[in-house]
Amino acid sequence: MNVTISNTALPSADESAIARESSHSLAVVLDNRSETQQFDFKTDKGARRSVTLPTSALKLLVEMLAEIGKGNAVSIIPIHAELTTQEAANLLNVSRPYLVQLLEKGEIPFRKVNTHRRVLYQDVVSYRQRTDEARRKALDELSAQAQELDMGY
Known about the structure:
By secondary structure, the chain is α+β, with helices and mostly antiparallel strands. It has helices at about 15-30, 55-70, 85-90, 95-105, 120-150, and strands at about 5, 35-40, 50-55, 75, 80-85, 110-115, 115-120.
């Protein structure tokens, strides 16, 4: 299943302001320990609709609105989703050829569908976490070394 909900366009100033206000309003509801939350909406024709949402989905919605409120575009990708090499490269902020090299070296697992490579979203996230952790460790070692050598940092 390859489901990606994406809006790559940046929100307008009005959309950001509405999202900011909405995220604050909905965050208040999250204090409730209930597993679901019920909302009543009024359609453009005046009819009322009632919607029940799982609290976990509401938390995700609040996070999305907060990001939109900051002027950021938001994408939602299911953890089990398969990505194309271009989608995976975009997620890692690297070029597609570089990502293909990572795949061929075995850094990130993939499978082939005919001639096309497919990568699990979770595998891309795991790779990013491993590389971020390695970077942090290297920086910690460098700063400790700079302290030992009294380099003034």
